[in-house]
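Review this today:
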Amino acid sequence: MSLSNAPDTASVFGSVHLGYIVIETQRLADWRRFGTDAIGMHRDDLDTGLMRFRLDEQECRFLVRRGPAEDVVATGWHVDDHGAFERIEARVRAHGVRVVVGSAEEAALRGVERFVRFPGPKGIVQEIYTTPVRSAEPLRMLASGFVTGDSGMGHVAITSTKPTQLRGYFHTVFDARLTDCIEETISGVKLRIRFLRVNERHHSVAVAAVRGLPVDPVRTRVQHLNIQAAGLDDLAWSYQRVCELGFDMALSVGQHTNDRELSYYARTPSGFEWEVGWNPVVVDEATWEPATHQGISIWGHTPVGRTIVDKLAQFRLGARSLVRSEDAVPALSGAGNADG
């Protein structure tokens, strides 16, 4: 473990991959059905208040624990080697931000040998690790597989009233790059979504900002999570299972304008959305140029069963953001990164 406070300017881009997500909920039975029977992941029950989901040989991709948040509380980032790990840790410490070493018990729950944690935007703790524990137990899941590997396991989408600060945070910590932007108007509200990558995946973090509105319209810390299905049949069958099992569908199947991913959005038992996608583009660093796209989708992604009452209820929940400040971890976000 590095104890140096000297920042290391060598880039860690390409060495960082979204590795696991920690979710806190009181609706464990619903999450058990959602993750196993609807989405089709492998599940391991640890005790009455803990379960894990797997997508591949890594022992844990989602840790679901009993608690009041009904939200994502931490994201874990797999770092390729100890050198990159120590560079990230040194950067965080050099900015005066406290880094905490996770206990052996916490590491075991996450399926990693060791990890450290530090504060992240919107209260989502950021965790980094180098060595995941591989499970020898064969996968038991309804899906044929999910795409992880060098691209990581998917992405996280966050709504924010401080988008440039969030960009600054992920650039400072992980050397994140702007892939592209989308501008969209929904019910008269203008959105600008910035897509940030830390490796070849089109984006590992999406930051959606509501222009000119001091309200974050989403109650939860994350707006949605994404995982990538191995095949088109996996996408179609999971869509059908979500509907047949009575879980809410937020957006029907559609295709995005920027990463060309075919996907749908289900609503999780905790309220945030879960995107299952297939076949997004892979970024070629030699040729990629950021662009701004008009509209989120080429086709589809239409709201399912949403009424004006639902929309008003969403903004009532979002209004709670007016009574809490959005923490962008100023020590790490600085003045922020503008689109340029």
